[in-house]
Amino acid sequence: ASKAAVNMINSSLAIDLKNDNIAAIVVHPGYVVTDLTGGLGDVHTDESVRGMTSVVDKVTMADTGKFFHFQGQEMPW
């Protein structure tokens, strides 16, 4: 439920900020290897951060309100 709430907040932000030419997106970091995951995961922190940075660098106003995976694919919510 909390992830859906974040997506809903993003949708509201996208509407509120559009006239100011500010895009609002959500980026999924992937299943990251951390202490919280007990060392499990599919991606290391540095790769996740590089991917999220790449996604953010490519955002246009056409992307506002969308949800992306750190590898760049748009994700449904």
From TrEMBL:
InterPro entries (alphabetical): SDR_enzymes, SDR_fam
GO molecular function terms attached to this record: oxidoreductase activity, acting on the CH-OH group of donors, NAD or NADP as acceptor
One matching Pfam family: adh_short
Organism the protein comes from: Phytophthora aleatoria
Domain of life: Eukaryota
Protein name, UniProt field: Short chain dehydrogenase
